[in-house]
Protein: AMP-dependent synthetase/ligase domain-containing protein
Amino acid sequence: PAALAADAGLAGAVLPALRADFEVYETYIPEAGRSPLSMPITALGGEDDDISRENLEAWSVETSSRLLGPEVFPGGHFFVDTRRAEVLATVAAQLEDTLRALPRSVLASTAEVPEVCAQETLQDVVLAIAAQRPDAEAIVDERERVTYGELAYRVRLLAATLQSQYLKGQAQQVVALTMPHDTTYITCMLGIFQAAGILLVIEAHFPEGLCKEICEESGAVAAVASEAHCPKFADVTGCQTLVLEGNWVATLAQSAKLDVELPAVNVQDTCILMMTSGTTGRPKTIAGTHFFTHL
Structure:
């Protein structure tokens, strides 16, 4: 526009970005052999733009699903602004059609779910591998590499400790967990499952007040936390905290009763409570079964 060209300061701020856009447009070469997208692509255009319908239809090579459109609207290159309501209505309708085509649940999906998921819990699978290949590497973080044999021992150690000292032989008791996402975190998840508990995932960024509210509403009777995160549970009514820090395996081994009887666990038992992000308000709870944890 003439007004832009006449304003040296504004032109100096805008023109470098425009030049960069044109350079990318003129020099971009698609990566050879790249895979097409697995979701539908919507192609939209303006009647007075210099992009032909044929060029819009060429987007079909970029998807292994299907091309929606092309839909052509009155107007030029900026039809998205001049025909905003029509464009939004078209995109919304296509999204609704796409969502309606999706399976309503994992069980209704055409994807094959391994039979083991409906027969064994995740911790059972881990323990079975440990029995067959104890020296195989199971989990790794920046500090250590843990074999299946060691993982199975730690899971049993933690499950026995939770049952004998905190859950008192009861199944389906809620146990909160918050700590860095490392090998100990994975061990704690499996240990809570093995103890027939229900894991309540408490994210590290949750403030203490929200942590207290969530734990008390969920009926948490115990919490497992690192030393840095244990203050979150200090004021939670009826909740005892097991702090794991340093060489916690050796510490628990001194008092754990590995022969304690653990309650039976069924694949369809509830085993995990997760919270939504809370970006639109207070976090909401999502419950999952042992079958869910395989997925």
